[in-house]
Amino acid sequence: MGFFLPLVSDLSEGQYRLMIYFQAIAARHAVGAVPTLMDQDVAEAAAALAGTLETAGKGIIYEHQAASIPAQRLVTVLRQGLTELTRESGAQTSRLERDAAVALRRLEHGARTASSALEGEEHPVFLSLISRMMATAGQATEEAHGSELAAPSAGDRQPGSGLIIPG
Q: Fewer CB near the terminus (10 Å): N or C of the chain?
């Protein structure tokens, strides 16, 4: 967390959510990627899509390309995720794209600096970190929802108040 918190500390809530969203997409994509997705590919993909969004924000239509094939495949998946969000955003599309560019730049920075900041970790360091974070968050969510949705056992049920008499 000492590595991750400075990455997100000054992001707005929307930018933070977008960064988490893009991290989840990258982590999911990495599972089945052939060849194996590396941190450098994540950094290149995030930089390419962020560059495209920043250029479009200036009124210039230019699609930045990632240098490697695995990175370009990730750009495609990240763009699809962003397209889904912009379809739902309506009038907020330009704001969403600005926030997405900021979030992608943070994702890029995290992927570029993880191996030096977290020495001794197994490569790919950043992808391993976000995969563990996503798994931990998913496990906590399942536990929380599982306990809420589970039917109470006989020992868990609270006795009635006595105000209502069953008929």
A: C
